[in-house]
Design a protein that fits this description.
Layout: E1 5-11, H1 16-19, H2 33-49, E2 55-59, H3 62-75, E3 80-82, H4 98-104, H5 106-113, H6 126-143, E4 151-157, H7 159-170, E5 188-193, E6 198-204
Helix pairs in contact: 2-3, 6-7
Length: about 220
Amino acid sequence: MSALIRVHLVRHGEAVFNVEHKYQGQADSGLTERGRGQAAAVGAALAELIPAPAAVITSDLPRTVATSEPYTGIIGMPAEPEEDWREIDVGTWAGRTFEEMSVAEPDVFQALARGEDVARGGGETFSAARVRIERALARIERRLAGAAEGADVVVFSHGGPIRLAAAIVAGLPSPGHSGIVSPANCSVTTLHLGSARGMHRYNHDPVGRSNGAAIDREEVV
């Protein structure tokens, strides 16, 4: 039986497009000042909870790389960028507001409301994104197959991939994300791989709102 692997998924800090209610996908608007504060707070909290992870992985998009830096700076371990952990590609919808796209492409919005898995803006479906998230999780399992029981991996990613990863370990049919609430900025979701596969905790705030690192619960992909 393979060893237990704990995968801690951290959503990036608040980004400019989050505040502007715009789709972001694989475009990048950068972290807001609040987002940088969230990253610093969650980095310090994670450094106390997980000071020596087996690996630190990040989506290669700038907002996730920037979110990872306070944590990796404290523990002295660089984050490894992986494209598979990128947000879902929303194609031509990136940088455009919800309201704008509901008017510009009402048929797509109606399909989404019916629960159809539509590639927004000619980008990516959730089912297609799930394939790469499954691949990324499998890569972690292979890498740590011989690790000691209870190895920790910290992954900095996005709302869409975190929802899909939760659906994967829960055994939900593809894409499986629709019934899972979006995780908050700089929240931590912990999944178990290996000997006890499943979801341990979802959308957890390891910092607490009283310290000024309040979490924005709106997801923009």
